[in-house]
Design brief:
four-stranded antiparallel beta sheet, two-stranded antiparallel sheet, single chain, 140 residues
Amino acid sequence: MKILKERLKLNLSEEVVSRCHRLGGRQAEGRSRPIIMKFYSYRHRSAVFGAKKLLKDSPFSLSEFLTINRMRIFRRAKDVHGMRNCWTSDGKICIRVRRDNGTFERVVVRRMDDIPPAGEDPNSSTFSLDTRFVNTRPRT
């Protein structure tokens, strides 16, 4: 809770956390074990994940707990498109893909086959996309 208050500038009490515990066994000296948290409210969870960019350049990080399959897909997406262009949101894997016209699309990936090749426009004929999960924004 100290990190949430000091680093993320959130004033949350312990009552907003449903469960919290460390994962795995003891680590080598100097390494902390990951902590998993479950919040009672989605609103509090969203506040924490919305503020996680304040952890840049710090020894701390926040990430969603993904299933094994989704974690594999996410790792592959990061390998292909880079860490800066891939993220998760509510368990969905998102990739920022540049289109040929200079705009960017947010593509939601559900399967390994859905990951577009690097540098390829997601609207090209060789790439299939479920358009229900596309958000097109002009480059800013």
